[in-house]
Amino acid sequence: MSDLLEHEGVKRVVAALAAAKHPTDVLALKDSARTAKAAARAAGCELGAIVKSLVFLVENRFVVVLVAGDRVCVPDNLPRALALKGPVRMAEAGEVRFATGFAIGGVAPVGFPRPIPCVLDRSLKRFETVFAAAGHPNCIFPTTVDWLKTMTGAIVSYNISAE
Which range of residues forms the domain containing residue 12? Predict the structure, then answer.
């Protein structure tokens, strides 16, 4: 499993964490964390403490939405949260990889090849520690909502998710 930490995507995440002066403790999991439920089981935490990194296009611009694992994203609320207008759609797998450099299931909130606007689900503040993907479906890293906001420049929103 230590070879997972040598994966190119994981190395990019570690470099981004280090550049932000964030601890670089990436956890390589025996089981896949490709879904929020699987990640919560593997991390031994509540489902809501898992950060889902979702990629959408708003006005044909890529945006990343960080949502609690026990919530669903409300795409129609994204334009207002990001001060954008126009149609919203979820990015397809190839678009996700192009925009973030990561495959679906391992999309980290940091380490993108270029800056991407980000919005953060306020409901994540329920948890002292949250866990985000670290560039590979079997890797996650612990962090806090404050760190996520700082590292991503995210706008915190009350209305981008629902139960």
Answer: 2-162
DSSP letters, 77-119, are: GHHHHHT--S-EEEPPHHHHHHHHSS-TT---SS--SS---EE
Work out the pLDDT band at 1, boundaries 50, 70, 90.
low
Q: What are the φ and ψ backbone dihedral angles of 120, each rounded to 5 degrees?
A: -120, 130
Q: Residue 20 maps to which CATH number?
A: 3.90.960.10
The phi, psi pair for 115, rounded to 5°, reads -60, 140
Q: What are the phi and psi torsion angles at 152 (to 5°)?
A: -100, -15
Tell me, yes or no, if the pTM score tops 0.90.
yes
Number of domains in the chain: 1
Name the DSSP letter for residue 76.
G
Compute the average pLDDT of residues 38-55. 94
Of 93, 101, 88, 85, which is closest to residue 136 (Cα–Cα)? 101
* Interatomic CA distance for residues 149 and 54, integer angstroms: 16
Predicted confidence at residue 7, as pLDDT, reads 87
Query: What does the alpha-carbon distance between residue 61 and residue 69 come to, in Å, rounded to a whole number?
Result: 24
